[in-house]
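URGENT: need a sanity check before tomorrow's submission.

F., can you look over the 2,3-bisphosphoglycerate-dependent phosphoglycerate mutase record below? I want to be sure the sequence and structure line up before it goes out.
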Amino acid sequence: MPRLILLRHGQSQWNLENRFTGWVDVDLTAEGEAQARRGGELIAEAGFRPDVMFTSVLTRAKRTGALALDSAGLKDVPVVEDWRLNERHYGGLTGLNKAETAEKHGADQVKIWRRSYDVPPPPLAAGGEYDFAADPRYAGQTIPDTESLKTTLDRVQPYWDAEIAPRLKAGEDVLIAAHGNSLRAIVKLLFRVPDDAIVGVEIPTGNPLEIDLDGELRPTAARYLDADRAQPLPALPEA
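Structure tokens as predicted:
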């Protein structure tokens, strides 16, 4: 049966600065690089050798995947990049400090923007510093100006169905190095997590989440490879 590992990128510079990052292409901190390398060591210790790694087009995810593969001695694993595995787009919150935003708009409102399933932040204004419309990585694509977790799942699921699931169903093992919200979307999909429960699912940075799947891609077992930094996992779905 296929195995899947979900690996959230290591700490980024804007994680450290407590800023809404979304699609902004910031790099890893030294701590984030260390988390990525440790993730690779854990992957090797688990005897996991992916047939392919999928990642987003953002540097922090790509570098996390590359550092993990290097640390695991798996530099020859083919890599597929796609923007549909990007982090959630934080719209008009992009670049703002989270604490200062809570002071301005109120902690309750910011919590709704951050953690609700289907309420997006205000849209990103066109033509500003963080307008991604001219970015060549998204040429020819209709890209959002804000996203909720629901609309993040709306773009992740078709990519999962078309590109990732067929590899798993063919018996391949897959590593996905991506972001907190794109990976939460995959967890919601696989574990059939209810809308009101997915907001409580946290995925720690740099800690590989190994999921055993059956032939229908239903999880049969799941665990974080670093037990000391694990977060609670959703219940396994019923067959």
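My own read: The chain has a mean pLDDT of 96. The longest strand covers residues 3-8. If you see anything odd, call me.
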